[in-house]
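hey so u asked for the seq, here:
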Amino acid sequence: MAIKRDILVDKLFDQKQFNTVYISKVDEENAKTDQVEMITELLCDERHKPSRAGVLHFIKKEPKAVELLLRAIAEATSDKQKLVAACWEGDIECTPFLTFFATLVVKEKFEVAMEALTVIEHMTGEVRPEVAKKLIEEVKEGYKPQADSPKAALLLDLVQLLHRWE
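ran it, structure tokens below
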């Protein structure tokens, strides 16, 4: 059973929350935390597996949902790999977030790094050459302490991918 777009909008983007002026930052942060938890549940909980394609399609079309997904990735502990994979599986345009995904390749464990590298492989947008050059240098620095690890090959692949934007 597919989740209808209206239901997703209601669940993730409660109009009361968007029309509310928060008196405290705590209330605003609590609302965002609830949305991040919801998007994580919709993408990672096996109960929602039949609706996953619909959720990914919704995220692809809603810029605020993409921001929530990135926040969910940044905050995730156990579901990080699934959330990163959702970006390329859903064909979500992540080029504006190249630095974020490159950092995941360098700093995260192998499985998450592999998914983040796949996201970068699927990027089709333009990146300023100076951004690509800076990232190449950062990846090379991150390579040194990991040269003997299985991630070394991923880091070398990332450098090659970044060269296309130089």
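Residues 93-166 form one domain. The chain has a mean pLDDT of 88.
lmk if thats what u needed
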